[in-house]
Amino acid sequence: MSFLGRLALVAGRALSTGQVQVQSQVLPAASTFAASWLKNSYHSSASSWLSAPATTAGAVTTADEKNAHLVDKDIWDEAWAYEPRFGTADNPIQVPALLGERIIGVTDPEDDTLVIWGVIREGEPPKQLVAGGEFFVLKKVERVEKVGDKLGIPLMPQVE
């Protein structure tokens, strides 16, 4: 006997004095109720959560796809540090500064774990901190751009 049949029998016994008559009346009602309850239960609706919503290909852009170009960059770092060229005496890397001098550091060419620090000042000729290394010159600016600025990403929400 099925689950629904047993449910109807139990319900019929609890309600009846004439078991045969009540079973014939209760069984269809109990079957309908049980089928309806099982169909609309939490468990049956869970199966609809397992499948992704129907969308057209390329309609939804995930956060990973949107920000893939930032994987190797820290948007808070300063843009000048990512110059794609080597600074020479004739064409040095311009280091922006809000003040007239700035401390910069470069890695030691013989030991990448060491940082050589130096100060560059406004008006000085291009400066090389390590032999065979890049040349730097200070450029005074009103605002120091970050990598996020160069990529068109607002780092701070604009307040109106």
From TrEMBL:
Superkingdom, natural source: Eukaryota
GO BP: mitochondrial electron transport, cytochrome c to oxygen
GO CC aspect terms: mitochondrial envelope; respiratory chain complex IV
InterPro entries: Cyt_c_oxidase_su5b_sf (IPR036972)
SUPFAM superfamilies membership: Rubredoxin-like
Name of the protein described by the UniProt record: Uncharacterized protein
